[in-house]
Amino acid sequence: MTHDLTGAAWFKSSRCGGGPTCVEVAFLETGVGVRDAKDPGPAFVVSPGNWSAFVRHCSGTTDDQAGDSATS
Q1: pTM of the full predicted structure?
Q2: Which residues form the DUF397 domain (predicted)?
Q3: Residue 24's beta-bridge partner residues?
Q4: What would the DSSP string read from start to end of 6-64?
Q5: What tens digit of pLDDT does each residue of 30-49 get?
Q6: Alpha carbon distance 43, 24 (integer Å)
Q7: Does residue 46 contact residue 34 with C-beta atoms inside 8 Å?
């Protein structure tokens, strides 16, 4: 599947703190785009479900505790 990243609204997590190791995320119609903030060239796209699972894993939240942590 091809994903159009033209005009994507990229943002950094509020938890990033502006450091050099941040990633940028863009919510797309076809998934969630992820790229390196310090080198915003290449990007990859994951499904919304996979993105939510990743965010829950990183935050230590279990499926039982899952709220809307996918946008943090």
Answers
A1: 0.73
A2: 8-57
A3: 12, 35
A4: TT---EE-TTSTT-TT-EEEEEETTEEEEEETTEEEEEEEE-HHHHHHHHHHHHT--GG
A5: 899 999 888 888 899 999 99
A6: 9
A7: yes
Q: How many CB atoms lie within 10 A of CB 44?
A: 10
The two three-digit tokens of residue 30, written as one number = 């076809």
**Distance between CA atoms of residues 53 and 65, nearest Å:** 12
pLDDT above 90 as % of the chain: 38
Q: Which residues are 45's β-sheet partners?
A: 33
Q: Does the structure show a pLDDT above 90 at 53?
A: yes
